[in-house]
Amino acid sequence: MSESKLAGQFFDAAIGLLQRVRDEEAENIAASGEAIADAIAAGGRLFAFGAGHSSLAAQDVVYRAGGFALMNLLAVPGVVGVDVMPATLGSALERVDGLAGAVLDSSPARSGDVLVIISLSGRNALPVEMAMNARALGLTVIGVTSVAYAQETRSRHSSDTFLKDHCDIVLDSKIAVGDAELTHEGIEAPFAPASTVVTSALMQATMAAAAERLVEKGIEPPLLRSGNVDGGHEWNGRVMTEYGDRIFFRH
């Protein structure tokens, strides 16, 4: 069977976007890593939030080999993924006013912590209010979003603002409005979204920058090892014990 032309085109598109964010967002990635490292050094906690498919990049940095043990998922019931039935309910919940404030008020997040909010469009009520409320509580907010949406669409929040307007640091994923990289004759809708690839890369690059900054401060990054390599469980047990008061995805 011959190679797929469209598959190759998607890889080219994704690689091009990764090169753009590597080069154009380098300073913001470094700043995000420094904010995370500073919070860790000061005894703060780390949280990541995303709704719908944006939650995939948030989950990607929580409780995983090679990741920071301190990164916690700030989960909003019904919007973390497509497990909610019907799946369209998750999209509807993103537009509910007041939900973000209720979640933050019942969470362990407090002043001095860092919250990474991932929202491709950044236009719905949930991520906008999450950022507004988090900053009011004294958290440092890092927004991972596509700034193009703020230029080409209207906000769905009553303030007429976007996620990017309420962040201390913004990481622009450069994803075009619509999140579909390919078109093809005979296919009416654009297809092949790249936002998950790019956003996850931005998150991992940020965590790498944070690890680098911690080493510069003389602090061992609180990393987890794979449980499928010899000594991994013992390593993770030590890290979990040392930082147990800042880890909320365990009992």
Question: How would you characterize the overall build of this protein?
Answer:
With 251 residues, the protein is an alpha/beta fold. 42% of the residues lie in helices and 12% in strands. It is built from 9 helices and 7 strands, in the order H-H-E-H-E-H-H-E-H-E-H-E-E-E-H-H. It has helices spanning 5-24, 26-41, 54-59, 88-93, 99-105, 125-136, 147-152, 195-216, 232-242, and strands at residues 46-50, 71-73, 114-118, 140-145, 169-172, 182-184, 187-191. Helix 1 (5-24) runs parallel beside helix 8 (195-216) and helix 2 packs across helix 8. The longest helix is centred in the C-terminal third of the chain and has 22 residues, at 195-216. The chain is globular and about 55 Å long. This is SIS domain-containing protein. It comes from Streptomyces achmelvichensis.
Mean pLDDT: 93
Poorly predicted residue ranges: none
Helical fraction equals 40-55%
Tell me what portion of residues adopts beta-strand conformation: 5-15%
Major β-sheet annotation: 5 strands, parallel
**Separation of termini?**
51 Å
**N-to-C series of helices and strands:** HHEHEHHEHEHEEEHH
Structural class: alpha/beta
- Number of helical runs? 9
Q: How would you describe the shape? A: globular
Number of E-type strands: 7
Strand line-up of the largest beta sheet: 2-1-3-4-5
Over all CA atoms, what is the radius of gyration? Answer: 19 Å
Organism: Streptomyces achmelvichensis
Protein name: SIS domain-containing protein
